[in-house]
Design brief:
12 helices; Isopropylmalate Dehydrogenase; 334 residues; alpha/beta; 37% helix; 12 strands; single chain
């Protein structure tokens, strides 16, 4: 039998209004993706305009959180925002930033208040938010700050890109490549591995997680001939993970970690920087990959793609990753 939490809806944030986020939310509703209820925090007039523009047939029901279950039976429940966002596909504007941030904050707060059980976030445009004064490198870090603010412990979020084909974790995330060697520490690699192993067990049901850890340098440094970070930082961190009882191996050459046979030997790959992790994930599973935030007191998933301004408003956006995000949020929050 489901407990009370299983009956709670999943909540969507609307994402960047000028991108495909609003129509992904509309597409999910038009397809009645899954029998479990969901709703969104959004500018209702934006969604009405975008549905008309993109040719998406869905009833939009304005409501508050208490009215979501009844509204879901008739269409997409929309809890309106205090801030407005115009429907200007492909034309991002700083004026919409407060609505984007409000949508994310209220979605997370709904989980904290017991009004929702998981958050699915649509893609944001970080540059627009930066120009509005946004202080966080990206979505993941902002969600970590919200979790630390509203829950009673400090959160250190970890970004995983998950698909049935491959799960990868970048140890450093939204920083310039030139800054990666200075940001990489034994403690960071170790703590990331601990979080990944714990959530693979508690959220994904993997009894004994196997972690493959990539080296930073080509050929994992080749015993120091191609850089010393792998021997000085990565290898000692792996040894600490083993001492903690985690099946971790490496540092491994990243160029041989992602072929079919290699992927069968681990449950998640820890990579040292953003593109080392996301390039193989997007090459192998672009339409089904999901961004899931680990190390948090709530479940958050997101499609593994950007705002796609060129597709916004056309109705041609592919909702596969967004629908996969909804399915994974449903699975992990049960």
């Amino acid at each position: 039998m489901p407990d009370d939490r299983d009956l709670l809806p999943i909540v969507f944030s609307m994402g960047e209004p000028a991108g495909i986020g609003p129509e992904l939310v509309l597409m999910a509703a038009s397809r009645r993706a899954g029998a479990h209820p969901f709703y969104t925090y959004a500018d209702t007039s934006l969604l009405v305009s975008r549905a008309r523009r993109a040719g998406i047939d869905v009833a939009l029901i304005e409501t508050d959180e208490a009215g979501v279950p009844a509204a879901f039976a008739r269409g997409l429940p929309v809890v309106p925002l205090a801030n407005c966002a115009a429907d200007k596909p492909g034309e991002p504007e700083v004026a919409a930033a407060p609505a984007v941030i409000e949508s994310i904050e209220r979605a997370v707060l709904a989980v904290k208040r017991g009004q929702a059980r998981a958050v699915v976030t649509a893609p944001i445009m970080k540059d627009v938010l930066y120009r509005a004064g946004f202080k966080h490198p990206g979505h993941t870090e902002f969600l970590g700050e919200l979790a630390s603010r509203w829950w009673d412990h400090r959160c250190e979020p970890v970004m995983m890109i998950w698909s049935p084909t491959l799960a990868v974790v970048p140890v450093t995330i939204h920083i310039p490549l030139a800054d990666v060697p200075g940001a990489l520490t034994q403690e960071l690699v170790y703590k990331t591995g601990i979080t990944v192993a714990r959530d693979l067990t508690t959220r994904f049901g993997v009894a004994a997680p196997r972690l493959a850890v990539a080296g930073l340098n080509p050929h994992a440094g080749e015993n120091g001939a191609l850089g010393h970070e792998d021997e000085r930082i990565v290898r000692p961190a792996i040894e600490r993970l083993r001492q903690a009882g985690i099946d971790a191996r490496g540092p491994l050459p990243a160029d041989t970690m992602f072929h079919d046979r290699a992927r069968q030997s681990y449950d998640a790959a820890l990579c040292m920087y953003h593109d080392q992790a996301l390039a193989p994930a997007k090459a192998l599973a672009f339409d089904e990959a999901v961004n899931v935030t680990l190390g948090m007191p709530f479940v958050r998933t997101s499609p593994d793609h950007g705002t796609a301004f060129d597709l916004a408003g056309t109705g041609r956006a592919n909702p596969s990753s967004f629908l996969a995000s909804l399915a994974l949020a449903h699975r992990l929050s049960r």
